[in-house]
Amino acid sequence: MTERKPYPSDLSDERWALIEPVITAWKAAHPSVSGHQGAYDMREIVNAILYQGRTGCQWAFLPHDLPPSSAVYYYFAAWREEGTDQTIHELLRWQTREKQGRLSDPSLVVLDTQSIRAAAAVPSDTTGNDAGKRVTGRKRGLAVDVLGLVVAVVVLAASAHDNTAGTALLDRVTARTDTVQTALVDQGFKSAVVDHGAALGIGVDIVARNPADRGFVPQPKRWVVEQTYGTLALHRRLVRDYEHRPASSESRVYWAMSDVMARRLTGTSGSPWRGA
């Protein structure tokens, strides 16, 4: 079979080497009853997931020289359900932090939410209306460290209050690590998040906007989460919520950030982010 022409989103050898041990271990833990090793190269499966995340195409529109959408979705869903996508993400996050001279887990996180529109096919029982932002869709909540690396993500209906997202994020942060002592939030989060953080041993600081400021003024430390949202928006599958399940939306964030971190760790890059 002729080797296909690579896509800009394809894994380089260096980036594949970072995640291949996790995928190989997963395959070893899920042997076929017949002993068959599978018809598709796992690197190509990951390439297809990254291609879709970067371009935003529908499952049926995956290029024919990548594995078929049925196979790609099988592994995407299996890795989502078993947390393999999060395992890859966590290992890369630890390595990225350590490369920057930091401990593997942070002591401070920044929380924020973003309401995004949902595609027409997204089930209505998983979406809602954010009246304040005039967005009907879902609410994506992130907890990031001071480098802008994602520690936790939660996806809810856009109608959910920021307090709901904030408490869920704090729960997921503490499930990931016991090192976080402080969380910074904006004024959209209320005392319920502060109280929930206190019960978990995390001090939640509400960073108030200076009344004298006019227009948009970045707030120190808190601004990093906005940079992360900007990075995610360069992955077109995340510009709008196309996923039937919120868990799939969360998985897309983990895959996008894993791609970003793998590139940082290896010093490799693909096509210009702001290209066509």
UniProtKB/TrEMBL annotation:
Record NCBIfam families: transpos_IS5_3 (NF033580)
InterPro entries per record: IS402-like_dom, Transposase_11
PANTHER family assigned to the protein according to its UniProt record, in alphabetical order: PHP DOMAIN PROTEIN, TRANSPOSASE
Transposase IS4-like domain residues: 105-232
Name recorded for this polypeptide: Transposase
Source species: Lipingzhangella halophila
One MF term in the entry's GO annotations: transposase activity
Lineage: Bacteria, Bacillati, Actinomycetota, Actinomycetes, Streptosporangiales
Domain Insertion element IS402-like residue range list: 11-89
GO biological process, alphabetically ordered: DNA transposition
Pfam families xrefs: DDE_Tnp_1 (PF01609), DUF4096 (PF13340)
Coiled coil segments of this chain: none
